[in-house]
């Protein structure tokens, strides 16, 4: 860990601090270039955009520029680190956008005293961008902020911690269910964790056909008798019953999805699950149960985690670059549920295709095929751009 710490710090410091720079996309080597890039030539696109705002997509980088924006209140698994300390994460997000989907990003870290102040700041700067990616904003403010920005803006607004996670979980679960001989409409699904990611995952799964979902948080099962429900989890509440705790909910369950905390899933609860269970232990950096522990308890489990050192990593980099690429290409004004579902199905289908040699080489593998240790594509699979972005763009145009 000491070696990783120093390598990470060196990576961010050398040869120049940070992970981003701005590069010109036009020549600026002669007097003529300068007269076109700036005055007097620049006045011409200014006039065209003033006459028709849609011309901004023709004469500026707006159509390929996304803002990655945060207030730093929920940075990775570190908590409220503040706006400035979140900047390395936002820069990291930016290079993933660029590397995987060719999308340019400005990372923007906002010191805001209230959610409304944050919202107004984003609204004020939004004309610059073709899309807004919200990141690392604590619940429940993240729900309010996203919903209000969607009302105010005519460009896609997407909170990746919620919806990116939901798309990847849905894609992975479709394949896990297929491999375990189960179906989404009939599976008994238990969530541990009802924050931004948990609620968004559950809602997308319901939209795609899940009918039996029980949400559990620190207080217990979310049912309609609870007095502490808010708009984001109220629609996920079940009818009151004797099922009040995680221990009550887990027996004979087909799927456990954890977005909670380290070691939160006890061995006895794993034993109580139905035959051929699915466990998505997504707490980072330490999952609710380690794969080695779960597989030692029973040998019929199919597992996924949020970590790259275990099979089946639920990695948002499989979603957000391609979702935005498709949305920008379609000149979409919003990210719809239909677009998210399209992304999930495209990811699911790609994992069932033969794996190209360059992907095997990138991961130093001799072979890889659809199965219990490979239910979602690898991030360095170049087919993601065409398949996922294409599916999203098509869904956007059908709305």
Offer a concise description of the structure:
The protein is α/β, with parallel strands linked by helices. Helices cover 42% and strands 10% of the residues. It folds into two domains: 2-25 and 61-155, Malic enzyme, N-terminal domain (Rossmann fold); 160-399, NAD(P)-binding Rossmann-like Domain (Rossmann fold).
Furnish the topology, listing elements before pairings.
Blueprint: H1 2-13, H2 31-37, H3 43-51, H4 56-59, E1 65-70, H5 87-101, E2 104-109, H6 115-125, E3 131-134, H7 141-152, E4 157-159, H8 160-179, E5 188-192, H9 196-207, E6 212-216, H10 231-234, H11 246-249, E7 255-258, H12 267-271, E8 278-281, H13 291-297, E9 302-305, H14 320-329, H15 337-351, H16 357-362, H17 383-398
Parallel strand pairs: 1-2, 1-3, 3-4, 5-6, 5-7, 7-8, 8-9
What do these coordinates show?
This protein is of the alpha/beta class and 399 residues long. The chain has 2 domains: 2-25 and 61-155, Malic enzyme, N-terminal domain (Rossmann fold, 3-Layer(aba) Sandwich), CATH 3.40.50.10380; 160-399, 3-Layer(aba) Sandwich (Rossmann fold), CATH 3.40.50. The protein is 42% helix and 10% strand. The chain is built from 17 helices and 9 strands. The protein has helices at residues 2-13, 31-37, 43-51, 56-59, 87-101, 115-125, 141-152, 160-179, 196-207, 231-234, 246-249, 267-271, 291-297, 320-329, 337-351, 357-362, 383-398; strands at residues 65-70, 104-109, 131-134, 157-159, 188-192, 212-216, 255-258, 278-281, 302-305. The strands form 2 sheets. A 5-stranded parallel β-sheet has the order 6-5-7-8-9, with helices on one face. Helix 5 links the parallel strand 1 (65-70) and strand 2. Helix 8 crosses helix 15, helix 14 packs across helix 17 and helix 15 packs antiparallel against helix 17 (383-398).
């Amino acid at each position: 860990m000491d070696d990783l710490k120093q390598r990470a710090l060196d990576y961010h410091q050398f040869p120049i601090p940070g992970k981003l720079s701005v590069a010109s996309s036009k020549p600026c080597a002669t007097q003529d270039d300068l007269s076109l890039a700036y005055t007097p030539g620049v006045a011409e696109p200014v006039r065209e955009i003033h006459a028709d705002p849609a011309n901004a997509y023709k004469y500026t980088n707006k159509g390929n520029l996304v803002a990655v924006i945060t207030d730093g209140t929920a940075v990775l698994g570190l908590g409220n680190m503040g706006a400035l300390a979140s900047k390395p994460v936002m820069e990291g997000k930016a290079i993933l956008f660029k590397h995987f989907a060719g999308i340019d990003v400005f990372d923007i870290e906002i010191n805001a005293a209230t959610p409304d102040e944050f919202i107004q700041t984003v609204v004020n700067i939004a004309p610059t961008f073709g899309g807004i990616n919200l990141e690392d904003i604590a619940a429940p403010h993240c729900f309010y902020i996203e919903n209000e920005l969607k009302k105010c803006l005519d460009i896609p607004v997407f909170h990746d911690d919620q919806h990116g996670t939901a798309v990847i979980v849905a894609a992975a679960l479709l394949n896990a269910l297929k491999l375990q001989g189960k179906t989404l409409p009939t599976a008994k699904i238990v969530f541990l964790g009802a924050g931004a990611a948990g609620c968004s995952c559950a809602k997308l799964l319901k939209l795609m056909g899940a009918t039996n979902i029980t949400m559990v948080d620190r207080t217990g099962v979310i049912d309609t008798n609870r007095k502490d429900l808010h708009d984001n989890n109220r629609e996920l509440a079940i009818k009151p019953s004797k099922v009040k705790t995680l221990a009550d909910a887990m027996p004979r369950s087909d799927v456990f999805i954890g977005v909670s905390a380290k070691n939160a899933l006890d061995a006895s609860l794993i034993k109580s699950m139905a035959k051929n269970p699915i466990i998505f232990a997504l707490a980072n950096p330490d999952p609710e149960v380690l794969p080695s522990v779960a597989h030692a308890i029973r040998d019929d489990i199919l597992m996924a985690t949020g970590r790259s050192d275990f099979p089946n990593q639920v990695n948002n980099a499989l979603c957000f670059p391609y979702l935005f690429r498709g949305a920008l290409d379609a000149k979409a004004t919003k990210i719809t549920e239909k677009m998210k579902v399209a992304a999930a199905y495209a990811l699911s289908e790609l994992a069932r295709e033969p794996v190209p040699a360059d992907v095997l080489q990138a991961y130093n593998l001799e072979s890889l095929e659809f199965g219990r240790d490979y239910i979602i594509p690898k991030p360095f699979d170049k087919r993601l751009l065409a398949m996922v972005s294409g599916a999203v763009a098509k869904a956007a145009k059908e709305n």
